[in-house]
Queue: 4 jobs
Job 1
Amino acid sequence: MASVILRDVTKRYGDNAPVITGIDLEVREREFMVLVGPSGCGKSTLLRMVAGLEEITSGTISIGDRVVNEVPPKDRDIAMVFQSYALYPHMNVRENLEFGLRLRKVPRPEIDRLVGEAARVLGLEEFLGRRPKELSGGQRQRVALGRAIVRKPAVFLFDEPLSNLDAKLRVQMRAEIKKLQHRLQVTSIYVTHDQVEAMTMGHRIAILDKGKLQQVGAPLEVYERPQNLFVANFIGTPPMNFVRASVADGGTALRAKGFVLPAPGGAREALARREGTEVVVGIRPEAVVEASRQTRGATAALELTADLVETLGDEVVVHGRLGEDVIAFKMDPHHPPEIGEKISARVELDRIHLFDARTEQRIVD
């Protein structure tokens, strides 16, 4: 097993602006790290640089105690699973699993042992004689995983391996990958654009945007303490509500267009120094509840008008208009409001997030 350490890693193509800028990231030994962000944020490029498939422009990448900037991919002791299964169509499952081992001239008894072990772990034993076209999408992805497992690498690299699967199979496969990593205890870096995958799979997640690292932390930490507006908006389903407001009354009130919220008690000292300045108030849908429900801590009343109602089965998401702003929150699916209906709700003040409107950075930890 090995850690993966990136120090001030930058990637630039020609004279163009960098696609990766000054990334500092440490993936601990045996850790499952997820790189997540929107399309084009640089996460796959970063993974390919760790794999050696892309040259870095500056900085260093270390696997274990060795800097691998100049080390070719085959000598980095990594195994990569791609979005495409990349299986050889003319070979059966056994031949696909053992192909890399045969190229490395591994003795036949050892090949049989490693392939048998991987097939058993992944539930592929009954499919060893089949060719890829005779397998389902999930079975093909397990073969691709098996091909990585048999190499016994120091690091697994996953580049959006579930993107080609349907929704139900994705849920099943992400559970299998997580259990597999827990069983094998191999340091793993997993790339996805899906924040649900990131939250459910990673020990920690690293959020990227426009080639820059925005925040690194455990899923719950990132959810509860987003460090900037991008992270706050990207993590969470439904996404966080944002309301622009000015600091008033010596930091005790947040004045938006059409309504006023009391400032959270823990933020008032910091807000007192920002009298009259504009902030962005972040409100998770989970922090807004119907007025009849019991809550803990201080709350503030919200009188909303239902603008949109989305039925999701076990809950409905209501988009309620409040002045010029719209607040999304969840309600009991058995008693959804009608469009235009007035709703009395309450917001839990201690769960409000505050961001500087100019820098977009979190104000209070």
Note: The chain is about 25% helix and 35% strand.
Job 2
Amino acid sequence: MSKIPGINHLQAVKALEKAGFRLVRQGKKHIVMSDGIHFLTIPRKNPINAYTMGGIGGLSVEEFYKLL
């Protein structure tokens, strides 16, 4: 399996907004988003591993990258 580069946490937020999630609150270390049913906690760490972000959003890596 090839190495997939990490992404900026702000790019992750924008991609998840395209998937239907909305910003609930922001803290110093994490951002919390929700789609009305599920809550996601995104770390404010750069770069975030793409596999981690796919797992957080319940999306495959390929689906997540299509939203970027």
Note: The CA atoms of residues 17 and 23 lie 8 Å apart.
Job 3
Amino acid sequence: MLALVLLWWTFVGFGTSGSKVSSTAENSSKAPLSRPTLSKAQPQSPVELKGDLLDQLRPIDYVYSLPNVPEAKRNIFVYYEPPPPPPVKPSVTPTPTPTPTPPVLLASLSPSNVFARTSDFTLEVAGDKFTPQMKVLIDNSVMATRYISPQQLSATVPAVVIANPGGRQVMLRSADGMLYSNSVALSVAAPPIPNFTYVGIIGTHRHIDTAILQDKASKEILNVQRGDLLGGRFRVTSISEKELIVVDSNLKIKHTLAYSTQGERGNPLQRPTPRVEGEDDEL
């Protein structure tokens, strides 16, 4: 019986408190719910806090709004993708245009080899289809040309054209350019030079000087005077204290040998001999 009384008191209760709670709950359920905003809510006083807890419960009207966020200036998820490289076009070698055949044939030159520093010479040109209007050109310089036949021309080449060794291009061409020939090379070689060193001089009051030379190859000492022939080719024409002049007897080219003091540091035979002042001293 005691247990039944306790259960009844727990769930139902005694007196009017239960009906008050139920009636309060009914009134609260039937009353329209008002949603006051946070701005209108008043803080509760300490007296109100002492009342029933159920009466203190009030709904909260929370007013919210989306924050004003500016749009992003760029999309961080977008990245630069380089464009694909253009396709490589295969290189095409153009077909060379064939060079037209010259209407005039230049076959040979005579002479085809000359030495530089020589004098004027005559160049004979052989070929075909020559005309009197055609001229001989050496490195695009017009030469004085003489017409002989349709197969032969003759030109005078001045010494200035072959002053330096090297190749020259010879061709034929008319004044109007309508007739022209192929080009042929003219070889200009360096002339041979005397292989001697002028190391001393022996002189007398009669001006009969003797030059002391040294062969660069054999180191042999030679004494020569004016008119002597060196190496069977070079004629001595002048002897002085500064230089020795020889002329190539074949090519008629003049060469100058400057006085050298190299003999002073070598063999006593190579040293320059002082000039003899008198006939008695010479003996």
Note: Confidence is low (pLDDT under 50) at residues 18-40, 264-283.
Job 4
Amino acid sequence: MAFLCIDGLRARYGKLVVLDDVNFSVEKGEIVSLIGPSGSGKSSLLRALIGLLPIETGEIRLDGETIDYRDKQSVRRLRDRLAIVFQQYNLFQNMDVLRNVTLAPTKVKGWPSEECRRQAIQLLEKVGLGEKLHSYPDQLSGGQQQRVALARALALRPEVLLLDEVTSALDPELVNEVLDSIRILAKDGMTMIIVSHEMGFVREVSSRVVMMAAGRIVEAGTPEEIFDNPKNERARDFVSKILHR
């Protein structure tokens, strides 16, 4: 059985169906990238996984345990194992970088403060911010703030990291510094589900690519299969457009 299984997932915003019979799985250590046009359900899928979008029907299992999203304890156990990084950094402006990263592990998890501090420093060094420990968010570039957000998510020691268009709010010259940090995590074997429009990066780091449209999965396969020889007409049309930009 796969580490993360998604079976028959359906969800809606009001009357709008945003996920429609979504099925796929993720093995431990895999990097699965979700691609597709805007409004295809990619971000909605991540929000449903983390419990921010109510699920109408379907089932999600993590390491064999079925997640009951109506039960707070079940969701809490899930969020002990999954973490998400959004497009916007959402850092606390009145706290320095180190405090932003250590806050949740110490206050929410109740882990020892000195241990959390050591871990935070290691993570910030890993994402190239070892010299910015005592800087405040407004003293950082957008790329640096997003790397702080990445370190903050990792400080919770997730088994699966969800990345929702983490470079879309950045100026083009800042994108690579965030992608380089994700490349490091990939080499470390972090299990990730990535939503991204950075197709060169998706092709480089992904174990598998899942193409979505209108809330459904239209094709899934290796990066080579999806980008070089897509079988579904909708996938062929999408790939041909993005590769000729």
Note: The first helix runs from residue 42 to 50.
